[in-house]
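Lecture 7, part B: from sequences to assemblies.

Below are the input chains for today's worked example.
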Amino acid sequence: MQFGIFTVGDLTTDPTTGRTPTEHERIKATVAIAKKAEEVGLDVFATGEHHNPPFVPSAPTTTLAYIAAQTSTIQLSTATTLITTTDPVRIAEDYATLQHLSDGRMDLMLGRGNTGPVYPWFGKDIRDGIPLAIENYALLRRLWREENVDWEGKYRTPLQGFTSTPRPLDGEAPFVWHGSIRSPEIAEQAAYYGDGFFSNHIFWPASHTARMVEFYRQRFEHYGHGKAEDAIVGLGGQVYLARNSQDAVREFRPYFENAPVYGHGPSLEEFSRETPLTVGSPQEVIERTLSFKKYAGNYQRQLFLVDHAGLPLSTVLHQLDLLGEVVAELRKHDVEVAA
Amino acid sequence: MRLVGGSPGADVRRIAVVTAGLSDPSSTRLLADLLGDATKAALEEGGRAAEVEVIELRPLAHAITDALLTGFPTGDVAAAVEVVASADAVIAVTPVFSASYSGLFKTFFDILEPETLDGMPVMIAATAGSARHSLVLDHALRPLFGYLRAVVVPTGVFAASEDWGSDRGAAGDLRHRVDRAAGQLADLVVARPALHRPDPFGDVPDFASLLGS
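Predicted structure of the full complex, as structure tokens:
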């Protein structure tokens, strides 16, 4: 089982100091966070993709390639690559290049994106989100697997005898996850191809994640890729750690209460109860994380969100030190389960 | 939430009453209870068992706002949403605020999944201090439920303060409107085919058809 972190890449004002990092600082911080993740023994670093303020990661493969050059073991990924508004030809080229530069130390997670205006900015319509994800990915797969592609679809100009370069490293297309918060069609797509399915997990109640994952597992088996329990599942998570629980809650509360997504809404305690958010000691995070298997089954990848809501870089790096300890413990449990 | 009579069973028609009154006692709640009881009586008159479940929005107000902000309802709000979604009919009653339904009333319907009221028999009702507001039913509530693809009964029930008076109150005009609306709602409930609730997982098309779409 892999453990890692995923970042949204938001530029958010630190509510405790009123300071907002510059784009330059945020981009450099992203690199520092990824390097630290490797140093503390995490397996995966994934970045989001956004094309509007207050987010910085519009060019994920540029950032990931730069990180690849400064790391040696960590797997580089996305959360998510926008399969709806990005030309699948550009995805094929960019990520194959990243695959070569990182010596294969990469994969990617496809997502639709939910920011309405981004679609028209890229000449698309948000109401076509699912059909775009399906058609574009069908093309992306062919571009990585076939040398001369003749293709015609609804959403981009036709291709005649097109060869996407560079060809995937050793002829192996990068591994693909399909990420979704709440669309069963995306779980169906992941199952159809035998790709990974990643449930965002952190913005919705666990009961919903359990249904999505179970649906994906059943369909994975239905399409003949193996047993339901062997389907390739990833889950999001969200933690804030301190040596003791009270300090964690006290330190994180101002960030929680002002967080862009759920701030000014439910209390930290309510949101912790309803979603996987865990604010507490390393032992509490270990126990909560282990509990995900009770409803999601054995799964392959756990990503945590640790660098959002205006948390300063120094705090995030300290969080990663603690998360490294947590993951070392989680690995022991993982071995026990496997044995 | 309070269960007003009836007993659960396969043939029992379930009426969800959503009331957005803020005071206690509330004339909105009073009207809601009149409408719920009258609808139950109309169904029973036609030989159908019925049960009425009343959802008071006031105690859920904070949690409804949380659901608006997070995108998912929890706890008592999730239970209230489920009562509405699984009902055979909905009676929606709001006080008039600033020439329309109250914000709390609208927010509750905003947090429902988009298909929840598709084809649902709905009765609309409102209360205010003056009969001058009575067109709120047809200018605000009816378009809202039309958008949600509910089937709204022709009679909307409006109760101004004066309607609660002895001559033209519960025993007079208001009672007449309540009974007429209840009869219309009961007819729709009886005529409505077996409840089909959309299943987001069961209704996913096979991938081959998604590819071909």
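Note for the exam: Strands of chain B lie at 2-4, 13-19, 50-56, 89-97, 100-101, 121-128, 151-152, 157-160. Keep this in mind when comparing with the next example.
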